[in-house]
Amino acid sequence: CNFWGEALWTSCQGWKVHTAAKPVAVGAKATIIVAIAVSEGNETVVIQRNNETGDSEFRVNGEVQTEEFSGLYLTVDLDQTSNNLTIIRVTSIAGQHTAEVETLTASLTLSVAPDASCIGTCSGLMGNCDGDATNDIKSLDGTVSMPTTTTGDAIFSNIVVSYLINNTANS
């Protein structure tokens, strides 16, 4: 990540993934993902670390869940790895989009797989998911496009900023 706050990671056909990031240390430019939200229909799953216990937790529409979840739009599966990390997999029932989150000691890692019908139509920091990196660096409204050789600072100020969530109604 190279942003601080909440941003649209990807979206397609009403399915959205937002990430929240913060600096890895006080004064650092580098950031880490600390929360992930997946939404579709009227269901939102938020995955984050519990600040008090350090454990990962997930909420569905604001309610903490302790077991796997199956709703009208989203399912949540839980797995433990051999090194005792938790993997939380959120799958869209309608489109079979998947967001997989591995909980680490201080951060979360995210792997996203949109449904095949979304190839070339996704929007967000992840690009349009057509496998061509040269057309992924576009602003949210599509008016700014930059080549892959663009500096990180220029991409941040012209592209990344357009995906930041500054209004709680869009969160």
Topology:
Elements: E1 5-12, E2 15-23, E3 31-40, E4 43-49, E5 56-60, E6 63-65, E7 69-70, E8 74-80, E9 86-92, E10 98-103, E11 108-113, H1 152-163
Antiparallel strand pairs: 1-2, 2-3, 3-4, 4-5, 5-6, 7-8, 8-9, 9-10, 10-11
Describe the structure.
The protein is mainly β and 171 residues long. It starts with a strand and ends in an 8-residue tail after the last helix. 7% of the residues lie in helices and 41% in strands.
Structure characteristics:
single chain; 171 residues; mainly beta; six-stranded antiparallel sheet; five-stranded antiparallel sheet; 11 strands
As residue ranges, the low-confidence spans are: none
Order of helices and strands: EEEEEEEEEEEH
What would you call the shape? globular
- Count of helices? 1
Beta-strand residue percentage: 35-45%
How many extended strands? 11
The spatial strand order of the largest sheet comes to 1-2-3-4-5-6
Helix content bin: under 10%
Estimate the mean pLDDT confidence: 89
Note the gap between the termini.
18 Å
Biggest β-sheet, characterized?
Answer: 6 strands, antiparallel
Oligomer: single chain
Helix/strand structural class? mainly beta
Radius of gyration: 16 Å
